[in-house]
Every structure is written in C-alpha cells, then in structure tokens.
Design a protein that fits this description.
Layout lengths: L5 H4 L10 H50 L18 H4 L3 H14 L11 E12 L4 E12 L3 E4 L2 E4 L3 E11 L5 E10 L2 E11 L9 E11 L4 E6 L14 E6 L1
C-alpha cells in the first residue's frame, strides 16, 4: 500500500499565479516612492526660488542705501562714509537718512522749558513805628534772604519790580494784653489800595501769658510797581522783633 505525504494532498493553484501578490506589492511601494521623490524635489525647487527672490530684494535695498549715503555730504563738506562705518551722529548729516534720524530724535527729545525769572524775599523786623493820628503800628523790615531782582525792601514797604504770581506769607508774634490783635497785609498799586489778607488773634489777659502769633498766607498776582506793607491796626501795639517770631516773605511761583 502506498504512503501519502501532506504535500501530495495539498491543493495546487493554477500554474503562473504563484508570485503575483508579491509583485503587486513591490510595484505599489515603488510608485509611492517615486511620487514622494518628485514632491520633495518640487518643494526644494520652490524654496530655492523664494530664497533667490529675497536675496535679490536685499541686494537692491543695500544698493539703494549705498546710493543714498554715498554721494551725500555733511555740513563740513566731507563725504559721508559707508553705512557700516557711520555713527548716529554722522548719519544726521547724510541725505534722507539724516533727515529721518533728526525727525525721530526731535520727537523723543524733551522740549526745553522757557527760562523762569525766580524771585524770593524773606524779611525780618528791625523796628516798629506807632502813628497815633492814624491809629496804626508799622514794622520796618530788613532782608534775611533775597534771590533775584524782582522784589525790593524799602523801610516799611516792599516794592515789586517783576510782575507775576507770588506766594505771600506773614507772621507777627504779639506780646500784648489787648483782647484781640492782628495784622493787615495791603497792596497799593495801579491807582488803588486793597487788603490782601487779614489775621486776627485773641490775647490772654495775663501779662505773663500774653504771647500769641498770627500767621496768614496766600497766592496773589502782583504787578510791577505794587507796594506791599504790613500794618497793625492799633497804635502802640507790642510785638516781638525776633526773626523767628515776626517775618514777611514773598516767593514768585
């Protein structure tokens, strides 16, 4: 009896069809690889063209800048250097480049403020004068601090030589048992006289405690030729002549 092997009983396909699937797979892979290579080559060509176009544009821009900077001359008659050798100060005198730099600097440079005439005067008392007929006491002043020429102390008054807005302050230290006392700061000028401010204080009746200071201040527009004075509206008023107790001052703002 004959023995049968497995290979003898396995079905056999038709002749000529044994390697067909393998060849089709290889053909598909080769087709995809060829398409990929073609796309890669196209992308490289486009990138190269783009870089060449940008390089040409940069070359034209550099050529234009060199033409602008080269022939121009600065104010001293010397030709401008090449753009690489120029400093910002050199570029200010070179053609359109310099004009644009000057305009940009002008925008960011703070404008210079106008010169302001500064005047200040601080006065301390020298003496007092009592006028019985007008029932006032006047204070004679002397400068303790002076700045500028816009203000001048003349005995009992202060004369203004520079018109403007001023801070005006005044203090009087009284040593008086009168029930109330105080001072008046007045201005005379432009054909009229007016009170700028008035200060009033009540005083203790005990002579040992009858010390009180009266301070006032304000901002006023003063004109050239104005005359300022401090008056105590009572004859024979008693006050301290110490520089830290009684004083008068003006500062131009």
């Amino acid at each position: 009896m004959l023995a049968l092997s497995p290979s003898s009983i396995a079905p056999r396909g038709p002749p000529g069809q044994t390697g067909a699937p393998t060849r089709e797979l290889a053909l598909s892979v080769a087709l995809w690889l060829s398409w990929g290579a073609a796309l890669g080559a196209l992308a490289c060509a486009m990138a190269l063209l783009t870089q060449q176009a940008e390089l040409q544009a940069l070359r034209r821009e550099v050529s234009g800048l060199r033409r602008t900077g080269g022939p121009s001359r600065k104010g001293n008659g010397q030709p401008c250097q090449s753009l690489r050798e120029q400093s910002p100060e050199d570029l200010e005198g070179c053609g359109e480049n310099g004009e644009s730099i000057r305009r940009r600097r002008a925008l960011f440079t703070p404008k210079q403020k106008k010169q302001h005439s500064y005047s200040a005067l601080h006065l301390v008392p020298v003496n007092t004068t009592s006028k019985e007929d007008s029932d006032v006491t006047e204070v004679m002043w002397q400068p303790a601090l002076r700045r500028g020429r816009g203000l001048e102390a003349r005995g009992y008054v202060v004369r203004v030589w520079d018109s403007g807005i001023y801070l005006l302050y005044s203090q009087v230290l009284f040593h008086d048992v009168t029930f109330t006392t105080g001072q008046v700061v007045s201005r005379e000028g432009q054909g009229r006289e007016e009170t700028l401010f008035r200060c009033v204080r009540s005083m203790p009746s005990n002579p040992d405690r009858a010390y009180n200071s009266c301070y006032s201040a304000g901002v006023f527009r003063l004109h050239r030729g104005d005359i300022l004075s401090v008056l105590i509206p009572r004859a024979g008023a008693k006050l301290s002549l110490s520089p830290h107790g009684t004083f008068l001052g003006l500062v131009k703002l």
